[in-house]
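ARCHIVE CARD
SHELF: 3
SLOT: left
DATA:
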Amino acid sequence: MSLIKSEKEIEFMRESNRIVAGALKYIKSFVKPGITTKELDTEIENYILSNDGKPAFKGYGGTRKRSGFPASACISINEEVVHGIPSSRKLQTGDIVSIDVGVLKNGYYGDSAYTYAVDEINTRKKNLLKITEESLYKGIAKATAGNSINDIAVAIQTYVEGSGYGVVRDLVGHGIGKNLHEEPAVPNFYSTGSNFKLRAGMTIAIEPMVNYGTYDVKTLSDGWTIVTRDGEPSAHFEHTILITDNEAEILTI
């Protein structure tokens, strides 16, 4: 499979990613104390279906040890890093909640995540969200043809760790296109195996996951939800982008 997308493929990806971006904008007004994460998931699923898309995460990733993901969005609260399963749990004032959305349309995928504040949050959570989102754009700024994956990774890691936070090591960004997860892997930290050179026409998802404490995480017994090992809060921001010879094009905006 070629990692370089044709103009037609890029147009298909723009369409699926527009739905993703629209879903994350749409759901913002629902992120309030008292709503359940299942209710948020239902709103997102209905939005995707109403735009002739297919929820990309629903049923994804089944193995012998776990069933496929049971919902349309990954919704992760406070110390939950990613892959939180929507449930009857209600949001409370002071929570932060990461919502990760994927869409399949015309055979191509879109993927993005945003971490929302639930009503008023404390200063440390505000700063965590600020640094995490800014680190995403630091990485995107390095995502140009001729640079390597490590250029993205080092920009993110340097900014996050220089601000006193932990960059998750167990999870990384990824290529995206006909498959939700394609090569290359896109870590948010320096790796000797990440010298892959970027080329115009590639599409990748950059997604820093940043913990208030250490970078250590663990997986809960449901087989999906990943949480910080020290119980400190975590934030997650993600964009799917198109690599060009100049500035990257953000598809999920």
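SLOT: right
DATA:
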Amino acid sequence: MIEMVLKRPGKGLGLLAALALHGCSTAAEAPARPRPALWTLSDSDTKIYLFGTFHLLPEGYAWRTAKIDEAIAQSSELVTEIGEVGDPAANAGTMMSLGVSPGLPPIMERVPEERKADLRKMIEESGVPLVVLDRLETWAAAMALLGVTFKRLELSPNAGVETGLTTGFRQSGKPIAGLETVAQQFGFFDALPEDAQRAFLTGMLDDPAKLKALFARMMTAWSSGDVDGIAATFNEDVDFSPLLHDRLLKQRNAAWAEWLAKRLDKPGTIMVAVGAGHLAGPDSVQAMLGRKGLKTKRVQ
């Protein structure tokens, strides 16, 4: 759901996945025949397809391939970061339960002076009352304003890979499970220090043209299955902070690798689909599995 990349002020934004870790572009900016990376982790009686996703896409973007269709057909279960998204009202309630705190400075005081006009404009576009944002912790206020960013970048929350996968598995009567809960994912942001939360909010105020250029690079890397490119573009702004890298990538990847290793004890074929940024780089899920003596195989 969240899969966000926290961007430095002046470079970009944290974008849901999840909500996220990752992206926007137009279909024209991607390869004519996308081939997102796909791996398998298997033993004698278990096969796990490991698929790196792009959480938000333009409407109508065709990301499926024959190999992905084969993996979907063979899999009896889908596992994503949070499984079914669930009731939006309940999710909003979860965010509010974590994100409301007394004695906070006004939201306008939480961005640099030179970005206040941009924040004011975004708030006006959002329709969220200023009094509500003033009561929210900075990460939650940023979340409340993400809809403006989606609209500016012509993104559809209903066009991401997870949405397509969960719809298909649900229609086929196959179960859908999650590696994390909505509360856990919001909790990652709630636990961030205030300076990181303010970086998240300030990064959302960048010129949409700059954000589109950044996300176009991400889209190109993902759609072409360029793992090195994914590592460079998806995670570069998390890597500038050891704290963010540890909390948003390394710890979660380690937990997911542990889950995958244990899942090999249960026979069958399943698909595990998580943000592509988790499947690239030295602290990727595959690297964590390798430290356990388990190897993945690239099949696309």
